[in-house]
Amino acid sequence: MKILMMGLGSIGQRHVRNIRRVLADKAELIAYRSRGSKITFTDKLEIREGVDLEEEYDIKAYTDIDEALAQKPDAVFITNITSKHMECALKAAEAGCHIFMEKPLGDSLEGSEELAGLVRDKGLVFFMGFQNRYHPCVKKMKEIIDKGELGSTVYGECEFSERLTTMHRYEDYRGTYMARKDMGGGPVFNLLMHDLDIIRSLFGSPDRIVATLRKKSGLDIDVEEGANGIFAWEGDKDFEFAVHTDFIQYPPAHRFKIVCDAGRIEADLNAAKVRIYAGDEPAREESFEDFQRNDMFIEELKDFLDCIEGKRDRLISFEDGLEALKMAVAMKKSAAEERSIRL
């Protein structure tokens, strides 16, 4: 299988390492690289001094996207800056390539209808990189909710926060895509997007949102430093889910609480622990001590490859990416217009 990597920053390199782990020399790797950075990382984002990435993983690199696509790759991994996701996906789809895209789908909805049509008409596999769906805590929450073990959901809240200045210790945070509006930065697109997808996978798409963005910050960035929102479901579901994200907190926080009429679930994704309260019974805690973060990336990679080979249906689709993006865009619109937005 010939695989084209569009972007070889930290997340792109993680996928390269995993592709070699899973496929070994059965994968021919090529890359489209616009910046040509020579930094090579480990799974823990440690720099491997003196190691040439292209030589280490046998990658043929191109500086022109059309030249790279002319090599007729079977699949494309889009792992570059957020603002380039849609542009690169359209070119890959036009070339008839299956697509794995790191979240989010983009930093706006522009181009989404065209991309949806290309994916549909050409029969392509499109897989969104929402790896947190594979987190054992998320799997446990979904199992409990799907089985109705704690009754109906009445309220939920989540928080995904991490200090921007130390997120990538090897570079100046001010130059990262996360810090810049023109690159699709901000915690809503780059942190909370994962949780918006998790919320949808648990409860379906909400009906409306009201949100605020925090921009008063000591950080040298032109995007929000934090955001708060309340999503609401109407009709039979009739509940609300509060979300929070920021680029301030250290140590990082990634938590869920889901309140049901017969108990509640508390999950700490960073600690890999879930606490379940059922009725008047003492809390039951499940700890996933063997969990390794890279396990999620390996699992999603295997599912993507199985989708291409027709062994299973698409698990995290273009539509999933689009709906999560709509939620994020609606949050920003609600904050800008200071009103509730119907989705």
- Tally of separate helices: 9
Rg on CA atoms, Å: 20 Å
| Class of secondary structure makeup | alpha/beta
* Mean pLDDT over all positions: 94
- The tally of domains stands at 2
For the record, the CATH architecture of the largest domain stands as 2-Layer Sandwich
Strand order of the largest sheet: 14-13-12-11-7-10-9-8-15
* Beta-strand fraction estimate: 15-25%
What's the total number of strands? 15
Let me know the CATH homologous superfamily of the largest domain.
Dihydrodipicolinate Reductase, domain 2
In this structure, how is the largest beta sheet organized?
9 strands, mixed
- What fold name stands as the CATH topology of the largest domain? Dihydrodipicolinate Reductase, domain 2
Please give the alpha-carbon distance between the first and last residues.
40 Å
SSE order in H/E notation? EHEHEHEHEHEHEHEEEEEEEHHE
- Described by the principal axes of the CA atoms, the overall outline is globular
Helix and strand topology:
Blueprint lengths: L1 E5 L3 H14 L4 E5 L20 H4 L2 E4 L2 H5 L5 E4 L6 H10 L3 E5 L9 H11 L3 E4 L6 H12 L5 E9 L25 H17 L4 E7 L11 E8 L5 E8 L6 E8 L2 E6 L4 E6 L5 E4 L5 H16 L9 H20 L3 E2 L1
Parallel strand pairs: 1-2, 1-4, 2-3, 4-5, 5-6, 7-10
Antiparallel strand pairs: 7-11, 8-9, 8-15, 9-10, 11-12, 12-13, 13-14
